[in-house]
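Quick log. Single chain, no ligands specified.
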Amino acid sequence: MKKLQVLWRLPFPWRERGTAEDGETSLLVPKEKSKGETATAVTYQGTENTAQAGSEEAQIGDGSGDLLSHQPQRPTSVRSCLLKNALFISNLFFTVMGLVVLGMGLWGLITKESFAQERIGHIGTDPMLVFVFLGLTLCLLCLMGCVGSLRENSCLLRLFSGAVLILVAAQVLVAIAAYSLQDQIVPVLRSGMLTAMVRYQDDLDMRFITDEIQMNLQCCGADNYRDWEMNLYYNCSAPGVQACGVPASCCIDPLENGTVWNSQCGVGAQQLVEFSAQSVIYLGGCLGGIARWIEQNKQLIGIVGIALLGVQILTLIVTTRLLDNIQWSKAISSQRDVES
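-> predicted structure:
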């Protein structure tokens, strides 16, 4: 048993060392014992440096050492000011744009008396609600960024950056879906165009959108001018002057004498053969016009899309840097409070 105890006390390399004492300078070298020490109080010189280093590491881990090692470099006041002002000004600009879009939507609803008692039941299908929703969403999102940057509110900035990140992801997904399902877009556009033509006389919004498309793209109908026979008023069996006709927005020259809008320029156009009708109205459908417009402006659409996406990504980067600066400032303030 005594031999085992002696072996247990031997300083094997894999043995865990004891705690250090004052005055130790080297590893695994027995320290001279004083007269009052017992034989069991065997210590080893040189462990005091290790103990002191361990205590210093513990202090660093508990205090400022860990903070300085993990926190970014201290931002200059000029850089922080530039980040905050850039984020504030950009969000203020988009807030004004959101208010303009929101005002357009509300103006359209009020002008058409969509809030009237007889029309309030159909307000859910009003296209002006799209402008109201987009304007309201843009205003709330940008106001969040404005207040967060101005007040240096980390919570609002995190919500703002999260919303922008979701918006960027949604745009990317929509672009991928549109490219993957481009063969199915044409039937959807045809269905929407035919619906607008059927409701042309009864819905002011559909009339405005259809007229703008036909005049700007110089087209008539979805596939050709004879598609207007689907409309109740332009059908050849319908009573009235508009029977077998097309809207004035299909006419090549809808202005009489160059000044007066001639709403009757498309009367009887469906009864004409294509050779005679081509001198009065546009024969091509709007689906072909949309395809030609996209082909002609493909580069412009790509540049605008990439620019908008780049602005949003740049906004995310600026917001992230501003959040880092705010967190650094708060950490330094907390450290000073602890030290004081």
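The chain has eleven helices and four strands.
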